[in-house]
């Protein structure tokens, strides 16, 4: 009888430890999400006066990608999703630390229609791409005001380990992706470039 009581107490303690760990992890993730959102808002306030006055749609782009430095990080431009009413500063290079600040260029370039952008799935951050639907407009404005208009042409979920599927495809000019809630898959939005009028 004594062993059953001891075993029950140990199970309860282990259960409480797991519960405490889960609550701690949730708290940390919530804090990190809030920090990321505040960082993007702060950066957009600095980038907006630089880029907005120069904004114009183009078909022909410069030969090299220009950057602007904000808070010691290099940005290649701003991604805008008009239907949702949100804008994201886009970091030049991807790293775990950079992803905590803002969405990053994973691979490719807007100069040759091969750009792939990655971001954390924060609710008010890049996770918002889950709301995009086929036909929605997405724009990218580089640091010298060149604006490229895209239209969502495909939405899919790709296994997180399937890098080839993420990078493949000549049918789209811009790819946006973020982890699903479980983190094992990537919510992926494919876009094609729209010629300016």
TrEMBL record:
Coiled coil: none annotated. The keyword Hydrolase applies. GO terms for molecular function: hydrolase activity. Keywords: Hydrolase, Membrane, Transmembrane, Transmembrane helix. The keyword Hydrolase applies. CDD domains: Sortase. The active site is at residues 120, 179. The chain crosses the membrane at residues 7-28. Pfam families: Sortase. This is Sortase.
């Amino acid at each position: 009888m004594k062993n059953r009581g001891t075993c029950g107490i140990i199970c309860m303690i282990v259960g409480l430890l797991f519960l405490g760990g889960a609550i701690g992890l949730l708290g940390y993730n919530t804090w990190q999400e809030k920090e990321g959102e505040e960082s993007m808002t702060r950066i957009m306030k600095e980038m907006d006066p630089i880029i907005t006055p120069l904004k114009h749609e183009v078909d022909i782009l410069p030969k090299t990608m220009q950057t602007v430095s904000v808070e010691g990080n290099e940005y290649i431009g701003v991604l805008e999703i008009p239907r949702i009413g949100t804008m994201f500063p886009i970091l030049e290079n991807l790293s775990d630390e950079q992803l905590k600040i803002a969405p990053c260029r994973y691979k490719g370039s807007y100069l040759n229609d091969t750009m792939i952008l990655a971001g954390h799935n924060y609710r008010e951050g890049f996770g918002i791409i889950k709301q995009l639907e086929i036909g929605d407009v997405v724009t990218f404005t580089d640091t010298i005001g060149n604006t490229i208009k895209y239209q969502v042409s495909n939405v899919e979920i790709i296994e997180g380990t399937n890098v080839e599927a993420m990078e493949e495809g000549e049918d789209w000019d811009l790819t946006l992706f973020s982890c699903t809630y479980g983190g094992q898959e990537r919510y992926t939005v494919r876009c094609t470039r729209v010629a300016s009028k």
